[in-house]
Write a structure and sequence with these properties.
The complex is a heterodimer.
Chain A (H helix, E strand, L loop, with lengths): L2 H12 L14 E2 L3 E2 L3 E3 L10 E3 L7 H6 L9 H11 L10 H5 L2 H4 L9 E3 L4 E3 L1 H13 L9 H12 L15 H11 L10 H5 L6 E2 L2 E2 L10 E3 L4 E3 L1 H10 L11 H13 L9 E3 L1
Parallel strand pairs in A: 9-11
Antiparallel strand pairs in A: 1-2, 3-4, 5-6, 7-8, 9-10
Chain B lengths: L1 H11 L33 H9 L31 H4 L2 H10 L40 H11 L6
Helix pairs in contact in B: 2-5, 4-5
The chains are: A alpha+beta, B mainly alpha.
């Protein structure tokens, strides 16, 4: 082996040191009451790649973190309140509201967000929360579907998520969802676009590192929908996925597509064990 | 006139090279990933290379690399190694290969190829999120690569 080859190998081995997470050690307690698990032992299916999974909260500045610690400071809560009104608003040909079937959101929706996306036996498909919400609207209420990443949808997702805050994410990855999960995993590791980057390049190999002005997190979705200070609204997981794929100079998938549903299931499963934090706050 | 504008149009889509220019698909990499011959046939300009390295819409190299010589450009990333002293570690041909397609030097590296036009999964139309048709325009032109290489060649520490 000549000198150049040795140099090349030495650099390849020595330089891109395995991701060292510059995540901070702060603890997240919301409303001085809900203690969030923001770092957890990686779920078994990630044993070969990660020791620990971490909430995106750890990678944000102290100021941004603080906004998530009290509902009075959390700008996302306005949208939760709006969705609370929607919950009891009668709409559609069946003249029903969400509450007509599900009564008190605090009781009926506790724990729901923690296990989505999940298998729907009757429909024979993996359903995201957004898909389930739209199914209720169309087939139970006789109302129009909401836009997959729109304001009504993200607000309702936030309201439903709030009822599971602090509970561990626990999506199933086997049984009938297994093939979808495998598809999502494949997408996670596929290097797309002219920049030839996969989710894993940024969020598995480089979390903790800066990419230009951005501090890379593990790209977890336990905090979604998230309020972003940048666009002052709630952002859904699929909208975020779309932005990340676009940033690889690739043709994106559409929110709600089979690909993004599979990716959501897979990414959610990477956060099994973290608390449901939604709606969280990001820059 | 007509002929010239046709040639220019062809260059814009990155398929046809100017006289003296090596098209992306014609570049010869040696077994370690180095590229001996200038891609444009015109000497690179280090000053314009420095701008390309810092420019978000061009090389955006600082997204991943720290470069002390560009301290005035805000926010340098930590994904790749610092480029300080790059010219002590690599000769010009090696630097050209690294910028044109670093995967020929470092197999599987995260560093994007800046002079490559096809073979992508879901190629997009720049950062629009829409589909792009291969061959895509390379991220940097032949002359821009030469300019970046000329800048990198100034990064010496010893």
């Amino acid at each position: 082996m000549n000198n150049k080859a040795i140099t090349a190998i030495a650099m390849a081995l020595a330089l891109p040191v395995a991701a060292y997470a510059e995540a901070d050690d702060d603890t997240l307690v919301v409303n001085e009451e809900i203690e969030m698990v923001t770092k957890a032992a990686a779920p078994a299916h990630l044993a070969d790649t990660l020791d620990e999974v971490m909430s995106g909260w750890h990678f944000r500045s102290d100021e941004t973190q603080a906004l998530q610690m009290d509902d009075f400071d959390n700008p996302a809560m306005v949208f939760v309140d709006q969705a609370m009104d929607t919950w009891t608003t009668v709409e559609g040909s069946a003249e029903k509201s969400c509450a007509s079937c599900h009564d008190d959101v605090e009781d009926s929706m506790a724990g729901v967000r923690a296990v989505y996306p999940k298998w729907n036996e009757a429909a024979g498909e993996v359903r995201t929360l957004a898909m389930q919400i739209n199914d209720c609207r169309e087939n139970q209420m006789g109302a129009e579907k909401w836009k997959y990443t729109g304001g009504k949808m993200s607000a309702m997702e936030a309201l439903i998520s709030v009822q599971s805050r602090g509970m561990p994410v626990n999506v199933a990855i086997d049984g009938p969802v297994q093939s979808t999960w495998e598809q999502g995993k494949e997408l996670y590791y596929t290097r797309t676009g002219q920049l030839e980057l996969s989710c894993a390049n940024c969020h598995e190999d480089n979390y903790g590192n800066m990419i230009r002005a951005d501090h890379l997190s593990q790209g977890q979705i336990n905090g979604f929908p998230v309020y972003r200070l940048k666009n002052t609204k709630l952002n859904t997981a699929h909208a975020r996925f779309k932005g990340c794929v676009r940033d690889t100079r690739a043709e994106t998938y559409s929110p709600g597509s089979a690909e993004f549903v599979a990716l959501e299931l897979y990414v959610a499963s990477r956060g099994n064990g973290l608390s449901v934090e939604a709606p969280s706050v990001r820059n | 006139m007509k002929h010239i504008s046709l040639t220019l149009a062809a260059c814009l889509v990155g398929t046809v090279a100017l006289a003296g220019e090596t098209a992306p698909k014609e570049v010869v990499y040696d077994e370690y990933g180095a590229v001996e011959t200038s891609l444009s046939g015109v000497a690179g300009d280090a000053a314009s290379g420095a701008l390309l390295v810092g420019d978000k819409s061009k090389g955006n190299c600082v997204a991943c690399h720290q470069v002390s010589a560009l301290a005035d450009v805000p926010f340098h990333g930590e994904i790749g190694p610092s480029l300080d002293g790059a010219a002590d570690r690599w000769n010009e041909a090696e630097l050209r290969g690294l910028v044109a397609n670093a995967k020929k030097t470092f197999e599987g590296t995260m560093m994007p190829a800046f002079y490559k036009v096809d073979g992508y999964i879901r190629p997009g139309d720049a950062y629009t999120g829409k589909a792009g048709a291969e061959p895509l325009p390379p991220i940097l032109t032949a002359q821009e690569i030469e300019d970046v290489v000329a800048f990198l060649a100034t990064l010496k520490e010893d």
